[in-house]
Amino acid sequence: SRISRRGTTGVAAGHSPECAALVYDVGFALMKEPGNALSLPTWFVHSSSVIEWIIAMQLVLKYARVTGKREFISLAYGMLPLHSSSLCACTYHFFYNAPQLDALVTLQALLTCGGNCGLLYGAYLIFRESKDKADAADDEADGDREGKPRGVETTSGLSEGLTLDDDWRFLIKAAALSLSTAFAVKYGSLYLSLPFHPDFKPALALIVFPTIVLGLDIARQEKKYFQAPEKLDWGSSRDDVQK
User: Cα(61)–Cα(57) distance, rounded to whole angstroms?
Assistant: First the structure.
């Protein structure tokens, strides 16, 4: 069904017929939300969850780049299925929880399980790498050659490489982006017929396409910073770093 916006009331209130017709036409273009449509605050929560997870993944990638710890790239890959899981929920609500798309609920559960396993594996790789480095440092005859306790890893230059906003600025940016996204999804979708004609193919596209884009970005950063030692981000070759 569609909303009509009191096209004749404007004339009765003293507005011109042209203005009344314009109001009527704009209102008629809007689809009517069903009763189970999410509220704006609820869409804000969903949007902020997706956006904050993407930010967290980018911070993990940046930490990997600055510290040279490739195992954190694996952690970013492990976070990817959980991003897809959140998109399943948002897509399901975008189509107003259509029964034809109930399979998205099962898909979300599978992706959540896979993402948790991916995080577990990524955390294990970080633990294993840290343990190997600590054991290697303990085996050295002179573990204090750099003026640091033996087996303790430094993060020299980390604060310079990780330039972050202060807490309040980050909070304002994240809140503004989440609110604008929630507003666009909730009210912008009323100009589309897609949410009112649920179909599994476009629903999957809304999940798969953003996931592929984010996965390609992880692969791009991995290739740029870890598979081209002659062009390291900090301007030195691997031989220079070893010297």
Answer: 6
Percent of the chain scoring above 90 in pLDDT: 60
Rounded to an integer, what distance in angstroms lies between the CA atom of residue 188 and that of residue 41? 16
User: Per residue in 214-229, pLDDT tens?
Assistant: 999 999 999 999 875 4
Contact 55, 91 (CB under 8 A): no
Which residues, other chains included, contact 110 with Cβ-Cβ below 8 Å and sequence gap of 6+?
none
Write b or e for each residue in 196-222: b if 16 or more Cβ atoms lie within 10 A of its Cβ, otherwise e: bebeeeebbebbeebbeebeeebeebb
Tell me if 37 sits within 8 A of 96, measured CB to CB.
yes
DSSP state of 100: G
- Are 150 and 137 spatial neighbours (Cβ–Cβ below 8 Å)? yes
Tell me how crowded residue 150 is: count the other CB atoms within 10 A of its CB: 13
